[in-house]
Design a protein that fits this description.
The complex is a heterotrimer of chains A (311), B (425) and C (308). By secondary structure, chain A is mainly α. Chain A contains 14 helices and four strands. Chain B folds into two domains: 206 residues, Response regulator (Rossmann fold), CATH 3.40.50; 152 residues, Response regulator (Rossmann fold), CATH 3.40.50.2300. In chain B, the strands form four sheets. Chain B has a seven-stranded mixed beta sheet, with helices on one face. In chain B, strands 2-1-3-4-5 form a five-stranded parallel beta sheet, sandwiched between helices. Chain B has a three-stranded antiparallel beta sheet with strand order 13-14-15, with no helix packed on it. Chain B is globular, with a radius of gyration of 22 Å. In chain B, helix 3 packs across helix 11. In chain C, strand 2 and strand 3 form a beta hairpin. With 308 residues, chain C is mainly α. A two-stranded antiparallel sheet of chain C has the order 1-4. Chain C has a two-stranded antiparallel ribbon with strand order 2-3. The longest helix of chain C is centred in the first third of the chain and has 33 residues. Chain C has a single domain, classed as Orthogonal Bundle (ABC transporter involved in vitamin B12 uptake, BtuC), CATH 1.10.3470. Classes of the chains: A mainly alpha (311), B alpha/beta (425), C mainly alpha (308).
Chain lengths: 311, 425, 308
């Protein structure tokens, strides 16, 4: 077993143990952090490994959330169907966006994804009679059951989040070591060379966008199901910037970085809010300090100083 | 490396715990007798984000109400301790804050949320945690049946009541052909739907429905959609661009305006003496509570104003430019008094009595105009968890709002859409 | 309103929108073009400009024109100084690395917003225009008696709005002259073309970067001072200008000032025109998708020399 696999399995084990040890408050926080970390891991596939900076991932998260939420709201679908459907909806959207957006690169790619995402947000508002626009709607507690388990129960919620988190973490671990993952890194480092070596760059990027969008969508669907509400604020621009921030803070291009970054940002906000009203000031200063003193994010720092083997 | 990652999480958890404990003097004193312990009320406030202008006044009003209640002996002899958390006017953070109140702050109840999307994001968690959650939002979400047994709105009427109560006055005094301008989100759509239905009952009609995208910051191009034969323009707008909206409306019409009827939401926290608003003279506004002290001001309104620190023009006594959100903030004051009355009726001792508290408030019914209810009498509907009360229609006259009409409570009633009391506690 | 007057009104409004956007986007375009970094806090410099305009105008409360002129002279340089300070203390140390600059400027965005909220407050606050006359615009209609002029309901603009358009174009022309003719422009263009070579020719690249960053922020602030008598200063007003300028810069083609000006006009005006034909939110959706598709099929922007 490689050191990396030990690390990742170890993290899962620790999180599992924490389910039974943490006080209620941190227990709830960690469940949230795990789902948001899945979102960030999805983002990291595209940004950290394929080197494509998207400013529109909120649309995939929202596609998953609304794909799940609307089928439950209008057709009473059970979660066992609604959750995969949300993920599929995000995958389909990601495919469509990828086909168009991958004609561009660099900053143009940022803008195109940003614009598509903004259009998606406005579509949610436009169909207000169905979506209830910005207000969103509640997923009734009775509908939030999976395999006979009540997802609104704190322990069930935590474990469901942990299962999703573990699956995605290990999948990312596999991906990075797989041929696809290595080709993506090759494209990130030097697209021309990858092309000359005979790789179909476009197809690999397409795969990365769809995979990344699907994972973000799964996070969105899970978030709605676990925490019980669906809303358009999850489709807004700031919510697209969030995973970028999580990934950059934790360390882009590391498997564990998105989780570390998400937890770091979450508790930074939370603790700053307890100490002072000016929590944005604290968060802003921390981000600036991060760029000055941990240039590749927290795990990037760890990799550079102590653990060059970190995937 | 596994070990290092572990200790990272552990250390953070410990730090968080310390931070939380430091901010919670109540927890360390928890060993004391229950009877002298403060009642901890979690206050979910919009300190940052688009709701900040409202949040600042919700904060001032709530602090004033707590001071008044505590000075009069608190709740069952126990003082209220307000525990404040900012939700950033964000539904995601709102839900997190509700959890924090329940598990970290050990609040007895939570109250104070204004923006509807934050309410809808937060209420499911409050319901699951069986934490009484009192919103001051004026949204129709509570009475529509979307929320849960633990979410109530006893301190402010909802948009459906407000809007339908306006229709008779508009049709009788201003005109029957109405053009509506509203923000293109759920709150605006509620205005559109409820008012269209209500004005039709009065024999009027809505000749244009102009929905403004919420991302918009310039409005003149939309005023062009107002039909020529419009008799009354009905406007409601929220957010930081409201002043621009109203000013551009004035520039658009010039000297030849139709009758204008607006919801004061379009001008909450905005000084009516702002240059560019002169054209509003003679136009009408819905008010939740008259901003300017009227000639027949009640003793209760006088007391409320003084306690919160608001002058006769609805501005802060320390800064005449700092205009309050007078049409909404009384809801915080009244809600805190309802919580007090409910806890005393239920003989509330601690979190174990939360269900009893809900039942006590559901049984409340009518509330008389008093210091606890300075805006006027209320009628609380225990089944729909929504309160009903008087509405005000004022006209701008010399840069002041002068009360012209006060609706009855009956004008605001509508058939129940839900019976929360049938749901389990 | 009839179609003709409605369209004219939408065009007039679009023009005001476009001219302010042009200034703000020129600022971002310079930063983007010369330094190759995305300044996420650009919108916050815009907001700071508006907020400072309110504060400065307040010092000269006696006369609105005096207050406005003072704001026009003081607010942009103050914002530029703040930007310069940030470049010196932070961005310079990051070596202007693109990714880290994004994070650092997001951090700056939070800091500026919070500081403004704490000092200026959450309310929208107005600045009085130095002059403001409503100008009704006549329109032609065919009546039984033949063609005749009339003044349609609402078809109007204000003298101040026209002033904003003129001032914005004048300022943009100034920027263009500086870039195209002056020695400063030569240095900037050299740095933009090739940082290493410029360095070899003894151009102090990092000082140039500081200057450009400050100039970009100053232009955003100038746009804000111009617009604040129409739209009020508010601590969250920076979001829109950031997004729109960002779009304009890319559509215009990276580093192309001419392209930025055209793109600003295009985006500013199209928003108004599309709103004549479709319901407002649908119009926004269509305009947004249109911009995205332009980029999809012209990834280098409409006026860029080659794909980015």
């Amino acid at each position: 077993m490689s050191r990396a696999l030990v690390l990742h399995l170890g993290l899962i084990a620790v999180l599992f143990a924490a389910a039974f040890l943490l006080p209620a408050y941190h227990h709830g926080n960690l469940a949230r952090i795990m789902v948001l970390a899945v979102y960030a891991m999805g983002y990291n596939i595209l940004f950290g490994y394929a080197g494509l900076l998207s400013l529109g991932h909120a649309m995939f998260f929202a596609a998953g959330m609304y794909g799940m939420g609307l089928t439950v709201r209008y057709w009473d679908w059970p979660m066992i169907l609604a959750l995969p459907f949300g993920t599929l909806a995000a995958a389909a959207l990601a495919l469509l966006v990828a086909v168009l957006a991958l004609r561009t690169a660099g900053v143009a790619f940022m803008i195109v994804t940003l614009m598509f995402s903004q259009a998606g947000f406005l579509v949610i508002l436009y169909f207000n009679p169905i979506t209830r626009g910005d207000e969103g709607f509640v997923i009734p507690q009775a509908a939030r059951r999976l395999a006979g388990l009540d997802l609104s129960d704190p322990m069930n919620r935590y474990l469901a989040a942990l299962v999703l988190f573990s699956v995605v973490l290990l999948a990312c671990h596999r991906l990075v070591l797989s041929r696809l993952g290595r080709v993506l890194v090759a494209i990130r480092e030097n697209e021309e060379r990858a092309r000359l070596l005979g790789y179909d760059v476009w197809a690999h990027k397409l795969g990365a966008v769809v995979l990344s969008g699907s994972v973000a969508g799964a996070a969105g669907a899970a978030y709605g199901a676990l925490f019980g509400s669906v809303g358009a604020s999850f489709a807004e621009v700031p919510f697209s910037i969030l995973p970028l921030l999580y990934v950059l803070a934790g360390g882009a291009g590391t498997v564990i970085g998105p989780f570390v970054g998400t937890a770091f940002m979450f508790y930074l906000r939370d603790l700053a809010g307890t100490v002072t009203d000016a929590h944005m000031l604290v968060a802003g200063a921390a981000l600036i300090a991060l760029t000055l003193f941990a240039r590749r994010g927290l795990m990037g720092l760890v990799r550079a100083r102590w653990a060059g083997w970190l995937p | 490396m596994t070990k290092s990652a572990t200790s990272k999480v552990g250390r953070r958890a410990v730090l968080a715990g310390l931070g939380a404990a430091a901010a919670m003097p109540g927890l360390t004193r928890y060993v004391q007798a229950q009877s002298s312990e403060p009642i901890r009320i979690g206050f979910q406030v919009h300190r940052t984000g688009i709701g900040a202008a409202y949040g600042r006044w919700y904060d001032r009003t709530s602090k004033a109400a707590v001071k008044v209640i505590n000075a009069a002996g608190g709740i069952n002899g126990r003082p209220i301790e307000l525990v404040t958390e900012d939700d950033g006017t964000d539904p995601k953070r709102g839900a997190e804050v509700v959890e924090k109140f329940a598990t970290a702050h050990r609040a007895d109840v939570v109250f104070g949320t204004l923006f509807s999307h934050v309410v809808i994001g937060s209420a499911p968690r409050a319901g699951e945690l069986k934490l009484p959650y009192f919103v001051v939002s004026e949204g129709h979400h509570v009475a529509s049946g979307m929320l849960n047994r633990y979410t109530l709105q006893p301190g402010i009427t909802d948009v459906k009541s407000q809007v339908q109560a306006m229709a008779p006055f508009v049709a009788d005094n201003l005109g029957k052909k109405v053009a509506m301008i509203f923000p293109d989100f759920a709150f605006g759509h509620d205005h559109r739907d409820f008012f269209s239905a209500a004005i039709a009952k009065q024999g009027g009609e809505v000749v244009a429905k102009i929905a403004i995208p919420p991302t918009e910051s310039s409005f003149t191009k939309y005023f062009a959609r107002i039909p020529r034969d419009t008799e009354v323009l009905y406007h409601v707008m929220v957010g930081p661009a409201v002043l621009t909206f109203v000013k551009e409306m004035g520039e658009f019409f010039g000297a030849s305006r139709p009758e204008i009827f607006g919801f004061l939401d379009s001008l909450e926290a905005v000084d009516l003496a702002t240059p560019g608003l002169e054209f509003l003279d003679g136009t009408y506004f819905w008010e939740g509570n008259p901003r300017y002290a009227q000639a027949d001001q009640s003793a209760h309104d006088k007391f409320f104003r003084e306690a919160v620190g608001v002058d006769a023009n609805g501005a802060s006594v320390s800064d005449a430019k700092d205009v309050s959100t007078y049409s909404h903030m009384f809801g915080c004051w009244e809600t805190l008094h309802v919580i007090k009355a409910g806890m005393e009726a239920a003989g509330y001792q601690g979190p174990a009595d939360r269900a009893k508290l809900i039942e006590a408030i559901e049984a409340m019914g009518p509330m008389a105009e008093s210091r606890a209810h300075p805006q006027g009498a209320k009628r609380f509907n225990g089944k729909t968890h929504q309160t009903f009360g008087h509405q005000f229609i004022s006209q701008v006259e010399g840069g002041r709002l002068v009360l012209r009409h006060r609706t009855s409570i009956e004008d605001t009633l509508y058939p129940d859409e839900v019976d929360y009391t049938t749901r389990p506690l | 309103m009839e179609f003709g007057p409605h369209l004219i009104l939408a065009l007039l409004e679009g023009l005001v929108q476009a001219s302010v956007l042009m200034l703000t986007a020129l600022g971002l375009s310079l930063v983007f073009g010369v330094m190759r970094v995305v300044n996420v806090a650009h919108g916050e410099f815009f907001m700071l400009g508006a907020v400072l305009a309110h504060v400065v105008a307040g010092w000269f409360g006696a006369h609105p024109a005096l207050g406005f002129i003072a704001a026009l002279l003081l607010a942009p340089p103050l914002v530029a100084l703040a930007a310069l300070a940030f470049d010196r203390t932070v961005l310079h140390r990051l070596g202007h690395d693109p990714e880290r600059t994004i994070v650092a400027t997001i951090g700056l965005l939070y800091v500026i917003q919070q500081l403004t909220l704490m000092t200026f407050g959450p309310e929208a606050r107005p600045v009085t225009a130095p002059f403001n006359h409503r100008i009704a615009i006549p329109w032609i209609e065919t009546t039984a008696a033949g063609l005749s002029f009339y003044f349609p309901w609402g078809l109007s603009t204000t003298s101040y709005k026209l002033f904003v358009v003129v001032a914005a174009f004048a300022a943009s022309a100034g920027v263009w002259l500086m870039m195209a003719r002056g020695r400063v422009g030569l240095v900037l263009r050299a740095t933009q073309l090739d940082r290493e070579t410029a360095q070899a020719f003894a151009i102090p690249v990092h000082q140039v970067y500081g200057f450009v960053f400050a100039l970009g922020a100053g232009l955003a602030a100038l746009g804000a001072v111009l617009v604040v008598p129409i739209r009020q200063a508010h601590y969250l007003m920076g979001g829109d200008p950031l997004l729109l300028s960002f779009i304009v810069v890319i559509i215009g083609g990276l580093g192309s000032l001419r392209g930025t000006v055209w793109a600003a006009l295009l985006i500013g005006m199209s928003d108004g025109i599309v709103s004549v034909f479709f319901s407002p939110t649908l119009a926004k959706i269509l305009a947004t998708l249109l911009v995205a598709l332009v980029l999809v099929y012209r990834p280098g922007g409409l006026f860029g020399a080659k794909p980015a």
